């Protein structure tokens, strides 16, 4: 009606365009943020997969080798000890010398560096398994060196200046490729060997076993303790200052940097109590302390979710407090507690920093047998390999990461399935 | 007897105790007497008294056996070693241990008496150990079994014991905190006896190398931690620069705009980022992101270090995105719908509602979430250990290489170490600073979030 109201309306209409633009901009920022997060996820997984996929194949040199009994000093009746002492690596060298006739010591050395030290062990284990091979000729795929492996899998056809192989070596390799002697096969050694300084011999068996033992200790300690603590805090604890203090402590511990748990492990478990360094036992103890808050917090949530009517019914039938909790509340809360425990275990599985403090970075070749053997774990193995300059180790690091992520996916899926299956809505 | 067989024997005794106690109670009931508790309670009581005391003894014994044996050994060492430094004594003792177990390399005649003593001691303590524990178990079994009668209040006793056990379990969290505090405080105290606390907190030069010989130049090492604090701060700031806007905007989008279908897909997908082990992020930062940043920098004519703070900070930011987003999501969802409805009723658009109503209302919670994220970034170890440098440069240039508190703790403590050198102790002093800073951040953040939640409950 009046001029001013018109102008207000005009003002609003005029500003609507700007406001709508701001609205859609804001919405766009939000969408972009979510997409950025998802993009990071895709790039990360893509990067690891593209780097690590080739770790699961290994290059071999197929050849027919004469197992010369005179040269090895072996015959059909030799003992295992004799076979172990025999000079198989000399035999391998001799065989390849005869194949390409290198000229002079320098060329010979170049030739030998194409074949892995593991080739001699391959022959040795064949002979240990079957003595009748001595004197005959054996068709076998011998392990190639990691430089050859990388060249054959990645660089062949587009040799750059960064290749670690010389002209002469490439010439030999190309003839072998033409003869069809070089081939890749599934890399079983990656899953059956312990760590090694030679990439083509290095595997994650030791690390996986160490991880398994460490997590076993962690689970056996943290699950009962976590469940007991959750029950106490939720069902029995009186509402007083002490309980409040315990609760604050647990919440804080859940957010304390993991590396400080390593400091605790080093100063108390190792230096005061004399637990052996680098063992799954001490690793498991440290990870127990680390995962306990997670398990307690999720356990309390699970107990809280059990409706009071269940408790009241049990009380009404004359059950004692302890009987109510252990016969009725705990069985109903257990699926939720298990889910929390699996998530806590998944955290422990990926944890590296505290384990560095307690000596699990040691170079351990042997596969650990029990919780007091020196060992390493998968994430620490990844950390160790990522430091190695060889390109083949980068590939293996990514391969180990793929295995680690695989385990994590399995555990988290199990947690989700368990929740879906057993969760009850009241 | 070794531990595993000892534990198996204990378990068998425990099971036997349960059966014996239960059967005696049943026999009493069969005589027509009324039991105070169920027969299983009597069984459980006997089992508890059979198993618990020996188990406690076993734990205490195995914790302290090493120290007691070593203490007894010192007396057997030759005079000149006993007079030497604690490191020499330690070395001699570990030599004796190796010789006694047959893995020692050098036969040192002067250590022979100690070796003999240790072997005798070990066989004796092992016998004593097994004997004591089994005796304790049998004693507990026998005494409690004799006590089983119809008037024994077995259920109340069992329940009281279980209650104590539950309480003890919840106390482990407190013990952990105390353990962390005690270990870092004690070692840091030793460190501050060698290096002044003023120099540590305000010195600007960090080179913890201790000379092998006393006459070597630069033998003292310097422990000014300011470059580490600055490096930590720089990397954390870069990380928050990524994580806070992205995390907050994702949370707003997912809770205010996204359809439930998008939400049910995008929220778990983002949370996968939080579940990826940090060592994987470290590898990604060191081998993929750092070279890319270096390449981009070089194409712009910038001098980028191959271990730039930017690469580590960026990747750390990515890691923290889901942390910020899920915590902010929680607090945004806790803002009552009535506030939003009121704002819409006054004609505000969605984004205006979010910016002028929802965010201010949720601000305390968001601040708490960001503080928790900062504490996470400060304490993060693997990403920086793999992607950030070791050189303690005092700089705010994100393209330079900096080092952080956690990286230094790792480098000082990994590998061979003597336990009373300032180098090793410095790691604990750094650990103390780290623990206190994160503790304060967490404590304040948790308080803020709690207060905020109560406000709308």
SSE arrangement:
The complex is a heterodimer of chains A (426) and B (457).
Chain A: H1 3-52, E1 57-66, H2 69-72, H3 80-85, H4 88-100, H5 104-112, H6 118-129, E2 137-143, H7 146-155, H8 167-179, E3 182-186, H9 189-192, H10 205-236, H11 241-255, H12 258-270, H13 280-304, H14 308-316, H15 321-350, H16 353-357, H17 378-386, H18 391-422
Antiparallel strand pairs in A: 1-2, 1-3
Helix pairs in contact in A: 1-18, 4-6, 10-13, 10-15, 10-17, 11-13, 12-13, 13-15, 14-15, 15-18, 17-18
Chain B: H1 3-30, H2 39-74, H3 79-82, H4 86-100, H5 112-147, H6 154-194, H7 197-202, E1 206-207, E2 222-223, H8 226-257, H9 260-275, H10 278-299, H11 309-334, H12 337-345, H13 350-379, H14 382-387, H15 405-413, H16 422-456
Antiparallel strand pairs in B: 1-2
Helix pairs in contact in B: 1-2, 1-5, 2-5, 2-6, 4-5, 6-16, 8-11, 8-13, 9-11, 10-11, 11-13, 12-13, 13-16, 15-16
Task: Characterise this structure.
- The complex is a heterodimer of chains A (426) and B (457).
- Chain A has 426 residues and is mainly α.
- Chain A has 18 helices and three strands.
- Chain A has a three-stranded antiparallel sheet with strand order 2-1-3.
- Chain A has two domains: 128 residues, no CATH class; 218 residues, MetI-like (MetI-like fold), CATH 1.10.3720.
- Chain A is extended, with a radius of gyration of 31 Å.
- Chain B has 457 residues and is mainly α.
- Chain B folds into two domains: 150 residues, no CATH class; 235 residues, MetI-like fold, CATH 1.10.3720.
- Helix content of chain B is 77%, strand content 1%.
- Chain B is built from 16 helices and two strands.
- Chain B has a two-stranded antiparallel ribbon.
- In chain B, helix 13 packs antiparallel against helix 16.
- The relative contact order of chain B is 0.09.
- At the A-B interface, helix 1, helix 10, helix 11, helix 12 and helix 13 of A face helix 2, helix 6, helix 8, helix 9 and helix 10 of B.
